[in-house]
């Protein structure tokens, strides 16, 4: 199932970059997993490796219309899809008062 999704994602990447030339294309599937890689001449690229347990590590990248290099790496395993990128939103820092309250609660557990 995931392999079909991955092939569709690669096809979408190529379609979105219809004027780009393919510089490198690798699609290897074997008994213990797979490896795929697509590199286009416009800076777009995608690669992933996976094992028989469904664990996948990958990365995709492109150059935005503003000229910024965008890179997203990810892991997909029993803990779900876990993307990482400087451009992904992150939660704000925990306020100091909350950190102090948590430390107090941990230092003074309930006697129940």
Automatic annotation (TrEMBL):
Signal recorded as keyword: yes
CC terms in the record's Gene Ontology section: chitin-based extracellular matrix
Q: Where is the signal peptide?
A: 1-16
User: Which domain of life does this protein belong to?
Assistant: Eukaryota
Could you tell me the keywords of this UniProt record?
A: Cuticle, Signal
Q: Which GO terms describe its molecular function?
A: structural constituent of chitin-based larval cuticle
Under PROSITE patterns, the record lists: CHIT_BIND_RR_1, CHIT_BIND_RR_2
Q: What is this protein called?
A: Larval cuticle protein 4
- Classification lineage: Eukaryota, Metazoa, Ecdysozoa, Arthropoda, Hexapoda
